[in-house]
Amino acid sequence: MNQNSNQGQLIRSLGLLSVFFLVASSVIGSGVYKKVAPMSEVLQSPSLVLMAWALAGVLTLFGTLSNAEVASMLADSGGEFVYYRKIYNRFFAFLYGWSNFTAIRSASIASIAYVFSQSFNSLVPLPTLPEQWASISVFGFLTPFDNFGVKALTVTLIIGLTYINYIGLKAGGSFSKYVLYLVIVSIFGIIVLGFVTGDGSWDNIQTNASGYVSHSWTDSTFIKSIFAALLAAFWAYEGWSTIGYLGGEIKNPQRNLPLGLIFGMLFVMGVYLCINFTYLYVMPIDELLKESHSQNTIAAVTVIKHLLGSGGALFMSLLILVTTLGTTNTTVLAAPRLYFAMAKEGLFFKGAADVHPKYNTPSKAFLYQAVAVCILVISGSFDQLTDMLIFASFIFYGATALGVFILRVKMPDAPRPYKAWGYPVVPAVFIIFCVALLVITFASKPREATMGLVLMFTGVPFYFYWNRANR
Q1: Residue 10 within any structural domain of the chain
Q2: Domain with 149 in it: what CATH number?
Q3: 429-449: per-residue pLDDT in tens?
Q4: C-alpha dihedral sign at 237, 18, 355, 93
């Protein structure tokens, strides 16, 4: 009997509209509600905060435009793993996949689910452990027992969403689509409320924080502050590339994948600018600064409470619960396809290549992912995780943009259903920015950057073991 006779297969079932919804739902999540507070803290100016959101959106769009050309040529299950194997080599492709497993994608799921639990905690206070337990640290900065009730709920959520996506792509994809409908209607309602209730003021947009100090645009302090704010904003834009992992399950991927990426990110950028303008219009920046020092408080909840009282805060907390649930679900759904592609190449745990005979999903890859995510939840805090994963992500975002130039040389005559808009300027600007972000992040947040690199390179021994076994 053939050993693969009980294997299912991945099915191309996603059209352009589904790709658009998955891109938008994988991006719009916790960052749009939470990151305005830490950005306000480092910039101390509403106008600079809005500029940082716009700049992060434009740069993300540059990365999306570059990624879309590569995706249109090489679309398949596994996303960048497939791209890097053809652009660079097996080792670099493996390093990307392993980095997602240990840091980038697993930390993304952990962080979004963490905000879900924080929002739930604002509605129903979760239990905490005694101080003598909560203060225990590992390596001097990891506190696994701190905020334990929030972490326990986060782990429970991850296990539940893993099961939903384990039993089928359509179940997970439909769930994310309906959640996105609700989120967009609600965000639009918040924007309208911010302007019609009469509690907002243009003075709030024009008034800097009481601690604001003016710096020249070329001053190193100003540059570090801008990059710190961009690091926070990029977390809110993070997740768009995960749709590439589903390339093997998208109808006409050479057309639908790049179009879904571009339209999805333009839509997200517009939503983010509108909602963050509303936050800063409604509430003075000094009030938002207070939120950046609270572990489980979310800035958007405070703004809506200011507008509508405790009932509004309840509504906002429920909206964040739904939003982060949808975003966590989309991220949980996509990443196992990457580990599936790696395992088929003999560069991951062998079981991850299994496709469930009934559900047609990479079922064991979901289980491996759930374990990795739960470990990260217990070990880290929200901001540690997001800064770490953004640092690691931009190593590979830059590599994909560089791949546009490499493929133009290596495969000049290959069909390109989509060519990067603004080539060569747009990909080049994005690559330069990626390098600058990595250097400045390493200088300003060495702990988070080092954590990302360490988790990335823990895969090297595994690579040599699996590569030798495969040969």
Answers
A1: no
A2: 1.20.1740.10
A3: 999 999 988 998 888 888 888
A4: negative
